[in-house]
Design brief:
six-stranded parallel β-sheet, four-stranded antiparallel β-sheet, alpha/beta, 10% strand, 53% helix, disordered C terminus
Length: 575
Amino acid sequence: MSLLVVGLSHRSAPVSVLERATLTADAQVKLVHDTVAAEPATEAAVLATCNRIELYADVDKFHAGVAELSTLLAQHSGVGLDELTPYLYVHYEDRAVHHLFSVACGLDSMVVGEGQILGQIKDSLATAQEQHTAGRLLNDLFQQSLRVGKRAHSETGIDRAGQSLVTFGLEQLSAGAPVETWAKGKRALVIGAGSMSSLAAATLARAGVAEVVIANRTLERAERLAQILIEGDDTDVLARAVPMETVPDELTRADVVVSCTGATGLVLTAQSVAAALEGRVEGPVAPDAGAAPAVRTTDPAPIRADLPPTSLGTEEGCPLDLSAVQGTAHFSVLGEAAVAGMPAAELEQHAAWVDKGAGEPRSGRTAAELISALAATVAAIGRIPERRRPEPVFEAPRPAPVLSLLDLAMPRDIDAAVHRLLGVRLVDIESLAEASADAPMAADVDQVRRIVSDEVAAFGAAQRAAHITPTVVALRSMAADVVAGEIARLEGRLPGLDDKHRAEITQTVRRVVDKLLHAPTVRVKQLAAEPGGAGYADALRTLFDLDPETVASVSRADGTKSTENTENAKNRGRA
C-alpha cells in the first residue's frame, strides 16, 4: 500500500473555486467513508481549512487511486470534475509525506509560519480516528506531522516569518500602524463562534479594543466565548453575546468587524453595510455610478468634454458606435487617438467598411491600411497608445475608513462589492493572498525546510523498516513452531527424559535457531529501511516459504494495536 494525496489550495486554485469547493463537517465524514469504500483505498483522512481541501489515502494502485480520489472530491465538494481537475495537485509516497510536513510547519500556508494549521491537522486526525478510517499509515503520518510542526516552531524562528491569518488580517486593516495602537478603544463585532472567530476575539481583546460583541446562530456558544474573554487574565475587555438577527444594529456601532462563519451565503451584503454607514460618512456612501471611474496616470486619459469633436463614427453606415466606445474605453477623442484601446474585431469591421467606400489615400496609405495596422497593434499589445501624452488624472481621495471589515470565511461572508463603499476598508481571503505573496521570508524558513527534509527521510526509513517487521515476526514464529515440533518429537523418542534435561535441550535448540536468524533479520531490517528496500520483504517470504496469510495477520494485529494505543493516548489526554 502507498500514500496518496489529492487536493487543491490557495496556491493552485483561485478563491472563487475554493469558495465553492468547501466541505461541511458532515461532508468530510461522508467523504472519508466513501473513500475507504472505494476499491483502491484502505485508509482515508481529510484536511479541510479555509484555504485548502486535501484527501489523504493509503492506496494499492496509483492511477486508479488518483482517478477515484479526484472523482470523490468533485462529488462531495459540489464542483464538477472537469472544472475542478485543472486546480488539483497530486503527491505520492515521499512527496506526499514532504507535503504534509511542510503544511504542518506553516511553509505552505497563506501566511508563512502560522501555527493554526497544527490544530486543524489534529482535528483532521481525530475525525479519521473517530470514523475508523485511519489505520497504521495515516495514524503514524499525521502524528509525526504534528511532531515535526512543533519541532519547527520550537527550534527555529519560523514564527517570525508570519502570523496567524487573524493577526495578518488585522495588520492589513491597520495599514502599517501597530495593531495595538490602531485597535485601542475601538468597538469590535465578531460574527461566528468557531475556532477562527474565537482566535479573532482573543486577539482583538489582547490588542486593546474597548468592547467585543460576539454574534452567533447558537447564542449559547457566543455567551461561552464572551465569558471566556471576560474571565481572561491577559485582557480587560467588555464582552457580550448577541443573536445573529441583531447584527445590523450592532454594525452601526462597530469600528471593526471580523466574520468567519460556516454559512453558504453572504452574511453581510453591500446594502446592509451601506445602511450601517449612513450618518457616519459625509456625503453618499457609494461612489457616483454615473461618473467615469478615476484612473492612474499610466492609463489612457478619461473622456474630457473640452476636446474638439471628431467625425469618426458619425458617417452613414459606419460600424463604430462612438458613444458606446466613449462610455467604456475611457480614452480621449482627438483625431486618430479616437480608436485607441478599441477591440481588434471592431477595428477590422471599420477597415472593411472604409475599404468598400474607396476612401482617398493619405500619405501613401489608405484608411483601410491605417486601421488594419491599428488592429494588428491592438492584437499584439492589447491597446493602442494615444498620439498625445495623456494628462495626469489622480484617483479621488477616499475618506478615512470608519468601518474595518475582516472576512476570514470560505466561502466569503462579506459581499465583495463592499470594496466600493466609501468609508469602508475590507480585507478578505483574496486580498490576504495578494498581500502575503509580497511578504518577506524569514531566514529561518531555510532551516525549517532542512528539518522537513530530514524528517521525511527518517519517516520513510521507519515505514520501510515497519513494512518488513511482519515478515520477520512471521519468520521467527515459524522457527518457534519448528523448535516446538522437534522437542515434541524428541520427547516421543525419549519418554524417560527428565525435566531438567528436557529444559536444557529446549533452550539449546532455541539458542541455535536465534543465532542463525539474528544476523539475517537485523541486516534485512537495515536494508529495508534504505530507499528501494521494499523488495527485501518479498525475498524473505520467498526464501523461507512463509505463508502470506500469516504475514498479513501479523500486519492486521499490529495495525489494531497501533489504533488502540492511539485511542488510549487520546483518552488519557482528555482525562
